Protein backbone atom coordinates (compact mmCIF):
# COMPACT_ATOMS: atom_id res chain seq x y z
CA UNK A 1 0.00 0.00 0.00
CA UNK A 2 1.00 3.64 -0.22
CA UNK A 3 1.22 6.79 1.86
CA UNK A 4 0.25 8.79 -1.24
CA UNK A 5 -3.25 9.91 -0.31
CA UNK A 6 -3.78 11.24 -3.85
CA UNK A 7 -3.26 7.82 -5.50
CA UNK A 8 -6.32 6.02 -6.87
CA UNK A 9 -6.87 2.97 -9.06
CA UNK A 10 -9.55 2.22 -11.62
CA UNK A 11 -10.06 -1.51 -12.05
CA UNK A 12 -11.85 -2.28 -15.31
CA UNK A 13 -14.21 -5.24 -14.87
CA UNK A 14 -16.92 -4.93 -17.48
CA UNK A 15 -15.53 -6.93 -20.40
CA UNK A 16 -16.30 -10.33 -21.86
CA UNK A 17 -13.83 -12.94 -23.06
CA UNK A 18 -15.46 -14.91 -25.86
CA UNK A 19 -12.34 -16.97 -26.64
CA UNK A 20 -12.72 -18.54 -23.19
CA UNK A 21 -16.24 -19.78 -23.97
CA UNK A 22 -18.10 -21.80 -22.76
CA UNK A 23 -16.83 -21.06 -19.25
CA UNK A 24 -16.62 -17.33 -19.89
CA UNK A 25 -20.13 -16.23 -20.85
CA UNK A 26 -22.17 -13.04 -20.62
CA UNK A 27 -23.40 -13.92 -17.14
CA UNK A 28 -19.92 -14.89 -15.88
CA UNK A 29 -17.10 -13.35 -17.96
CA UNK A 30 -13.52 -14.42 -17.40
CA UNK A 31 -12.62 -11.88 -14.70
CA UNK A 32 -15.03 -13.67 -12.33
CA UNK A 33 -13.54 -17.13 -12.96
CA UNK A 34 -10.83 -19.15 -11.24
CA UNK A 35 -8.57 -19.82 -14.20
CA UNK A 36 -5.12 -19.56 -12.65
CA UNK A 37 -5.54 -20.58 -9.00
CA UNK A 38 -7.88 -20.57 -6.01
CA UNK A 39 -8.99 -16.97 -6.50
CA UNK A 40 -10.83 -15.38 -9.38
CA UNK A 41 -8.86 -13.25 -11.80
CA UNK A 42 -10.53 -10.11 -10.47
CA UNK A 43 -9.66 -10.97 -6.87
CA UNK A 44 -6.03 -11.51 -7.86
CA UNK A 45 -5.97 -8.24 -9.83
CA UNK A 46 -7.47 -6.26 -6.94
CA UNK A 47 -4.99 -7.71 -4.45
CA UNK A 48 -2.18 -6.84 -6.84
CA UNK A 49 -3.35 -3.22 -7.15
CA UNK A 50 -3.70 -3.07 -3.36
CA UNK A 51 0.09 -3.39 -3.19
CA UNK A 52 0.07 0.15 -4.59
CA UNK A 53 -3.28 1.71 -3.66
CA UNK A 54 -5.24 1.62 -0.42
CA UNK A 55 -8.53 -0.30 -0.60
CA UNK A 56 -10.61 2.84 0.03
CA UNK A 57 -9.10 4.43 -3.11
CA UNK A 58 -9.73 1.51 -5.47
CA UNK A 59 -12.58 2.12 -7.91
CA UNK A 60 -14.17 -0.67 -9.93
CA UNK A 61 -15.88 0.09 -13.24
CA UNK A 62 -18.13 -2.76 -14.28
CA UNK A 63 -21.41 -3.44 -16.05
CA UNK A 64 -24.50 -3.15 -13.89
CA UNK A 65 -25.34 -6.82 -14.57
CA UNK A 66 -22.16 -7.71 -12.65
CA UNK A 67 -22.65 -5.36 -9.70
CA UNK A 68 -23.74 -8.10 -7.28
CA UNK A 69 -20.82 -10.32 -8.32
CA UNK A 70 -18.28 -7.53 -7.77
CA UNK A 71 -19.71 -6.86 -4.31
CA UNK A 72 -19.52 -10.57 -3.50
CA UNK A 73 -16.00 -11.11 -4.76
CA UNK A 74 -14.48 -7.83 -3.53
CA UNK A 75 -16.01 -7.03 -0.13
CA UNK A 76 -12.97 -4.81 0.58
CA UNK A 77 -14.16 -2.27 -2.00
CA UNK A 78 -16.53 0.42 -0.76
CA UNK A 79 -19.90 0.01 -2.49
CA UNK A 80 -19.91 3.68 -3.48
CA UNK A 81 -16.63 3.04 -5.34
CA UNK A 82 -18.23 0.50 -7.69
CA UNK A 83 -19.34 2.28 -10.86
CA UNK A 84 -22.02 0.20 -12.57
CA UNK A 85 -22.15 1.11 -16.26
CA UNK A 86 -25.71 0.97 -17.64
CA UNK A 87 -24.32 0.17 -21.11
CA UNK A 88 -21.00 -0.94 -22.60
CA UNK A 89 -19.12 1.98 -24.08
CA UNK A 90 -15.53 0.63 -24.32
CA UNK A 91 -12.44 1.85 -22.47
CA UNK A 92 -12.52 5.58 -23.23
CA UNK A 93 -15.76 6.09 -21.33
CA UNK A 94 -14.77 3.73 -18.54
CA UNK A 95 -11.40 5.39 -17.96
CA UNK A 96 -12.76 8.93 -18.23
CA UNK A 97 -15.61 8.29 -15.82
CA UNK A 98 -13.29 6.45 -13.42
CA UNK A 99 -10.91 9.42 -13.46
CA UNK A 100 -13.74 11.92 -12.97
CA UNK A 101 -14.99 9.91 -10.01
CA UNK A 102 -11.50 9.97 -8.47
CA UNK A 103 -11.33 13.72 -9.17
CA UNK A 104 -14.68 14.19 -7.40
CA UNK A 105 -12.95 12.77 -4.33
CA UNK A 106 -9.62 14.54 -4.78
CA UNK A 107 -8.78 17.34 -7.19
CA UNK A 108 -5.14 16.11 -7.23
CA UNK A 109 -5.97 12.46 -7.91
CA UNK A 110 -3.38 10.36 -9.72
CA UNK A 111 -5.06 7.32 -11.31
CA UNK A 112 -3.69 3.87 -12.12
CA UNK A 113 -5.82 2.03 -14.69
CA UNK A 114 -5.70 -1.75 -14.66
CA UNK A 115 -7.64 -4.65 -16.16
CA UNK A 116 -9.30 -7.21 -13.90
CA UNK A 117 -8.45 -10.18 -16.11
CA UNK A 118 -4.69 -10.00 -16.61
CA UNK A 119 -1.93 -12.16 -15.15
CA UNK A 120 1.31 -10.78 -13.65
CA UNK A 121 3.92 -13.33 -12.63
CA UNK A 122 6.60 -11.03 -11.14
CA UNK A 123 4.74 -8.96 -8.55
CA UNK A 124 7.77 -7.07 -7.11
CA UNK A 125 8.79 -5.94 -10.60
CA UNK A 126 5.21 -4.91 -11.36
CA UNK A 127 5.12 -2.78 -8.21
CA UNK A 128 8.48 -1.20 -9.09
CA UNK A 129 7.39 -0.26 -12.62
CA UNK A 130 4.00 1.09 -11.55
CA UNK A 131 5.58 3.20 -8.82
CA UNK A 132 7.87 4.70 -11.45
CA UNK A 133 4.83 5.42 -13.63
CA UNK A 134 3.05 7.08 -10.70
CA UNK A 135 6.08 9.24 -9.91
CA UNK A 136 6.33 10.26 -13.56
CA UNK A 137 2.64 11.19 -13.83
CA UNK A 138 2.80 13.08 -10.53
CA UNK A 139 5.85 15.18 -11.42
CA UNK A 140 5.14 15.84 -15.12
CA UNK A 141 2.17 16.77 -17.35
CA UNK A 142 2.34 13.34 -19.00
CA UNK A 143 -0.09 10.59 -19.80
CA UNK A 144 1.91 7.47 -18.98
CA UNK A 145 1.45 4.02 -20.46
CA UNK A 146 3.29 0.88 -19.36
CA UNK A 147 4.28 -1.07 -22.46
CA UNK A 148 5.00 -4.76 -22.06
CA UNK A 149 8.38 -5.99 -23.29
CA UNK A 150 7.41 -8.58 -25.93
CA UNK A 151 8.27 -12.15 -25.00
CA UNK A 152 7.55 -13.45 -28.53
CA UNK A 153 5.91 -12.26 -31.76
CA UNK A 154 2.12 -12.56 -31.72
CA UNK A 155 -0.85 -11.08 -33.52
CA UNK A 156 -2.99 -11.35 -30.37
CA UNK A 157 -1.93 -7.96 -28.95
CA UNK A 158 -1.67 -4.38 -30.12
CA UNK A 159 1.79 -2.80 -30.40
CA UNK A 160 3.18 0.57 -29.31
CA UNK A 161 6.19 2.03 -31.11
CA UNK A 162 8.45 4.31 -29.10
CA UNK A 163 10.54 7.18 -30.38
CA UNK A 164 13.44 8.83 -28.61
CA UNK A 165 14.14 8.11 -24.98
CA UNK A 166 13.41 11.06 -22.73
CA UNK A 167 15.46 10.07 -19.71
CA UNK A 168 16.45 7.27 -17.37
CA UNK A 169 14.01 7.50 -14.48
CA UNK A 170 15.65 4.90 -12.27
CA UNK A 171 17.93 1.90 -12.51
CA UNK A 172 16.80 -0.30 -15.36
CA UNK A 173 13.85 1.88 -16.42
CA UNK A 174 13.80 4.39 -19.28
CA UNK A 175 11.05 6.82 -20.20
CA UNK A 176 10.23 6.93 -23.93
CA UNK A 177 8.16 9.21 -26.13
CA UNK A 178 5.37 7.25 -27.81
CA UNK A 179 5.54 7.34 -31.60
CA UNK A 180 2.54 5.26 -32.81
CA UNK A 181 0.05 2.44 -32.15
CA UNK A 182 -0.72 -0.61 -34.31
CA UNK A 183 -3.78 -2.72 -33.53
CA UNK A 184 -3.10 -6.50 -33.66
CA UNK A 185 -0.82 -6.82 -36.72
CA UNK A 186 -0.43 -10.07 -38.64
CA UNK A 187 2.36 -12.41 -37.54
CA UNK A 188 5.00 -11.40 -40.16
CA UNK A 189 4.48 -7.76 -39.20
CA UNK A 190 4.74 -8.62 -35.49
CA UNK A 191 8.03 -10.43 -36.17
CA UNK A 192 9.35 -7.37 -38.02
CA UNK A 193 8.22 -5.08 -35.18
CA UNK A 194 10.01 -7.06 -32.50
CA UNK A 195 13.23 -7.22 -34.52
CA UNK A 196 13.55 -3.43 -34.29
CA UNK A 197 13.48 -3.33 -30.50
CA UNK A 198 11.24 -0.26 -30.69
CA UNK A 199 7.88 -1.93 -30.10
CA UNK A 200 6.02 -2.97 -26.95
CA UNK A 201 2.78 -4.85 -26.35
CA UNK A 202 -0.16 -2.61 -25.54
CA UNK A 203 -1.68 -3.77 -22.24
CA UNK A 204 -3.99 -0.75 -21.81
CA UNK A 205 -2.13 -0.02 -18.59
CA UNK A 206 -2.20 3.74 -18.01
CA UNK A 207 -1.30 6.16 -15.22
CA UNK A 208 -2.25 9.84 -15.25
CA UNK A 209 -3.42 12.76 -13.22
CA UNK A 210 -7.19 13.01 -13.47
CA UNK A 211 -6.82 16.66 -14.48
CA UNK A 212 -4.44 15.70 -17.33
CA UNK A 213 -6.86 13.11 -18.70
CA UNK A 214 -9.70 15.62 -18.51
CA UNK A 215 -7.56 18.11 -20.46
CA UNK A 216 -6.85 15.46 -23.10
CA UNK A 217 -10.57 14.78 -23.54
CA UNK A 218 -11.22 18.52 -23.76
CA UNK A 219 -8.78 18.65 -26.68
CA UNK A 220 -9.53 15.41 -28.55
CA UNK A 221 -13.00 14.24 -27.41
CA UNK A 222 -14.79 17.46 -26.40
CA UNK A 223 -18.29 16.10 -27.02
CA UNK A 224 -17.73 13.14 -24.69
CA UNK A 225 -16.30 15.41 -22.01
CA UNK A 226 -19.20 17.81 -22.42
CA UNK A 227 -21.66 15.02 -21.62
CA UNK A 228 -19.60 14.01 -18.57
CA UNK A 229 -18.51 17.52 -17.55
CA UNK A 230 -20.34 17.89 -14.24
CA UNK A 231 -19.63 14.42 -12.87
CA UNK A 232 -16.51 15.43 -10.96
CA UNK A 233 -18.53 18.07 -9.10
CA UNK A 234 -21.16 15.64 -7.78
CA UNK A 235 -21.45 13.71 -4.55
CA UNK A 236 -21.04 9.92 -4.83
CA UNK A 237 -24.79 9.41 -4.66
CA UNK A 238 -25.56 11.96 -7.37
CA UNK A 239 -22.65 10.69 -9.49
CA UNK A 240 -24.23 7.24 -9.72
CA UNK A 241 -27.69 8.68 -10.39
CA UNK A 242 -26.33 10.68 -13.34
CA UNK A 243 -24.79 7.68 -15.13
CA UNK A 244 -27.84 6.49 -17.16
CA UNK A 245 -28.16 9.88 -18.84
CA UNK A 246 -24.41 10.12 -19.41
CA UNK A 247 -24.11 6.67 -20.99
CA UNK A 248 -27.08 7.25 -23.23
CA UNK A 249 -25.24 10.14 -24.86
CA UNK A 250 -21.62 9.03 -25.22
CA UNK A 251 -20.07 7.00 -28.00
CA UNK A 252 -18.35 3.65 -27.75
CA UNK A 253 -14.64 4.02 -28.48
CA UNK A 254 -11.39 2.68 -27.05
CA UNK A 255 -9.00 4.91 -25.13
CA UNK A 256 -6.32 4.21 -27.76
CA UNK A 257 -8.39 5.64 -30.62
CA UNK A 258 -9.93 8.42 -28.54
CA UNK A 259 -6.83 9.78 -26.81
CA UNK A 260 -3.60 7.78 -26.98
CA UNK A 261 -3.07 7.92 -30.74
CA UNK A 262 -3.59 11.71 -30.73
CA UNK A 263 -1.93 12.92 -27.52
CA UNK A 264 1.49 14.56 -27.82
CA UNK A 265 2.26 14.11 -24.12
CA UNK A 266 2.01 10.30 -24.06
CA UNK A 267 5.08 8.54 -22.74
CA UNK A 268 5.95 4.89 -22.15
CA UNK A 269 7.74 2.98 -19.42
CA UNK A 270 8.68 -0.60 -20.36
CA UNK A 271 7.38 -3.36 -18.15
CA UNK A 272 8.86 -6.85 -18.01
CA UNK A 273 6.96 -8.62 -15.23
CA UNK A 274 5.47 -11.73 -16.82
CA UNK A 275 2.28 -10.10 -18.11
CA UNK A 276 -0.45 -11.93 -20.00
CA UNK A 277 -4.07 -11.11 -20.74
CA UNK A 278 -5.22 -14.78 -20.76
CA UNK A 279 -6.91 -14.33 -24.10
CA UNK A 280 -7.67 -17.97 -24.88
CA UNK A 281 -7.59 -21.51 -23.48
CA UNK A 282 -4.08 -22.19 -24.79
CA UNK A 283 -2.77 -19.41 -22.54
CA UNK A 284 -4.66 -20.94 -19.58
CA UNK A 285 -2.87 -24.21 -20.33
CA UNK A 286 0.54 -22.51 -20.53
CA UNK A 287 0.00 -20.81 -17.17
CA UNK A 288 -1.33 -23.94 -15.46
CA UNK A 289 0.35 -26.57 -13.31
CA UNK A 290 1.21 -29.65 -15.36
CA UNK A 291 1.09 -33.25 -14.16
CA UNK A 292 3.66 -35.85 -15.22
CA UNK A 293 1.88 -36.28 -18.56
CA UNK A 294 1.82 -32.54 -19.19
CA UNK A 295 -1.93 -32.30 -18.58
CA UNK A 296 -3.47 -29.29 -16.80
CA UNK A 297 -6.70 -29.73 -14.85
CA UNK A 298 -8.72 -26.80 -13.52
CA UNK A 299 -12.21 -26.35 -12.13
CA UNK A 300 -14.35 -24.56 -9.60
CA UNK A 301 -14.45 -27.58 -7.28
CA UNK A 302 -11.77 -27.92 -4.61
CA UNK A 303 -10.75 -31.22 -6.14
CA UNK A 304 -11.18 -31.52 -9.91
CA UNK A 305 -12.12 -35.08 -10.89
CA UNK A 306 -10.37 -36.46 -13.96
CA UNK A 307 -9.18 -39.81 -15.29
CA UNK A 308 -6.59 -39.94 -18.05
CA UNK A 309 -4.92 -42.86 -19.83
CA UNK A 310 -2.18 -42.28 -22.43
CA UNK A 311 -3.26 -38.64 -22.69
CA UNK A 312 -0.68 -35.85 -22.90
CA UNK A 313 -0.47 -32.05 -22.85
CA UNK A 314 -4.22 -31.50 -22.58
CA UNK A 315 -6.22 -28.83 -20.74
CA UNK A 316 -9.25 -30.17 -18.87
CA UNK A 317 -11.83 -28.01 -17.11
CA UNK A 318 -14.23 -29.92 -14.88
CA UNK A 319 -17.51 -28.77 -13.45
CA UNK A 320 -18.13 -31.40 -10.80
CA UNK A 321 -18.46 -34.41 -13.08
CA UNK A 322 -15.69 -36.91 -13.71
CA UNK A 323 -13.99 -36.14 -17.03
CA UNK A 324 -12.22 -39.15 -18.54
CA UNK A 325 -9.83 -38.87 -21.48
CA UNK A 326 -7.84 -41.55 -23.28
CA UNK A 327 -5.33 -41.49 -26.12
CA UNK A 328 -5.61 -37.77 -26.93
CA UNK A 329 -2.91 -35.12 -27.07
CA UNK A 330 -2.83 -31.31 -27.17
CA UNK A 331 -6.58 -30.93 -26.77
CA UNK A 332 -8.83 -28.61 -24.80
CA UNK A 333 -11.77 -30.19 -22.99
CA UNK A 334 -14.10 -27.74 -21.23
CA UNK A 335 -17.03 -29.26 -19.34
CA UNK A 336 -19.71 -26.99 -17.87
CA UNK A 337 -23.20 -27.65 -16.54
CA UNK A 338 -24.75 -26.87 -19.95
CA UNK A 339 -22.03 -27.19 -22.55
CA UNK A 340 -19.15 -29.51 -23.43
CA UNK A 341 -16.55 -27.94 -25.73
CA UNK A 342 -13.61 -29.84 -27.27
CA UNK A 343 -11.02 -28.42 -29.66
CA UNK A 344 -7.32 -28.76 -30.54
CA UNK A 345 -5.10 -26.59 -28.39
CA UNK A 346 -3.53 -24.89 -31.41
CA UNK A 347 -7.01 -23.84 -32.58
CA UNK A 348 -7.98 -22.18 -29.32
CA UNK A 349 -8.41 -18.77 -30.99
CA UNK A 350 -11.17 -20.32 -33.10
CA UNK A 351 -13.43 -20.71 -30.06
CA UNK A 352 -14.57 -17.19 -30.83
CA UNK A 353 -16.05 -18.53 -34.10
CA UNK A 354 -18.31 -20.85 -32.11
CA UNK A 355 -19.63 -17.83 -30.22
CA UNK A 356 -20.20 -15.96 -33.47
CA UNK A 357 -22.12 -18.96 -34.84
CA UNK A 358 -24.36 -19.02 -31.76
CA UNK A 359 -25.05 -15.31 -32.25
CA UNK A 360 -25.94 -15.90 -35.90
CA UNK A 361 -28.35 -18.68 -34.91
CA UNK A 362 -29.78 -16.51 -32.08
CA UNK A 363 -29.04 -19.16 -29.44
CA UNK A 364 -28.69 -16.57 -26.71
CA UNK A 365 -29.12 -19.11 -23.91
CA UNK A 366 -25.62 -20.43 -24.66
CA UNK A 367 -23.87 -17.07 -24.85
Structure commentary:
The structure is a single chain. With 367 residues, this protein is of the alpha/beta class. The chain has 2 domains: 270 residues, Alpha-Beta Complex (Spore Coat Polysaccharide Biosynthesis Protein SpsA, Chain A); 86 residues, no CATH class. The chain is built from 11 helices and 17 strands. Strand 16 and strand 17 form a beta hairpin. The chain is globular and about 60 Å long. The two termini are 38 Å apart. The model has no long low-confidence stretch (mean pLDDT 92).
Concise summary:
The chain is an alpha/beta fold and 367 residues long.
Summarize this structure as a short list of keywords or feature phrases.
2 domains, 5-stranded mixed barrel, alpha/beta, 17 strands, 27% strand, 4-stranded mixed beta sheet, Spore Coat Polysaccharide Biosynthesis Protein SpsA, Chain A, 367 residues
Shape: globular
Order of helices and strands: EHEHEHEEHEEEHEHHHHEEHEEEEEEH
Instruction: Give the distance, in angstroms, between the N- and C-terminal Cα atoms.
Output: 38 Å
The count of β-strands is 17
Largest β sheet strand count, sense and barrel closure: 5 strands, mixed, barrel
Assembly type of the shown chains?
single chain
Q: What's the total helix number? A: 11
Count of discrete domains: 2
Q: According to CATH, what is the class of the largest domain?
A: Alpha Beta
**Mean pLDDT across all residues, rounded?**
92
Query: Nearest-angstrom radius of gyration?
Result: 21 Å
CATH architecture of the largest domain: Alpha-Beta Complex
- CATH superfamily membership of the largest domain, which one? Spore Coat Polysaccharide Biosynthesis Protein SpsA, Chain A
Widest sheet: strand ordering:
6-9-7-8-10
> Approximately what portion of the residues adopt beta-strand conformation?
25-35%
Q: Structural class, from secondary structure content? A: alpha/beta
Return the CATH topology of the largest domain. Spore Coat Polysaccharide Biosynthesis Protein SpsA, Chain A
Spans of at least 5 consecutive residues whose pLDDT stays below 50 are: none
The share of residues in helices is 25-40%
Amino acid sequence: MTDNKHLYAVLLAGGGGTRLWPKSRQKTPKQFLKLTGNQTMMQVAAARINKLVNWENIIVVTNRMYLAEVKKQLPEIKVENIIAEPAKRDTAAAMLIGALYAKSKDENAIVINAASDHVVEDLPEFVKVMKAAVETATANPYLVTVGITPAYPTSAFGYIKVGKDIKNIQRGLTLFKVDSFTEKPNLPTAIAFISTGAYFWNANMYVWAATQLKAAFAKFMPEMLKVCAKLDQLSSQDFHKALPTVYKNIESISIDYAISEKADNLVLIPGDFGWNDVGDWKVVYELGKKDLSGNVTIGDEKEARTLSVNAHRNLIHTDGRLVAISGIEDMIVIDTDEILMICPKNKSQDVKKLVERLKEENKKEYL
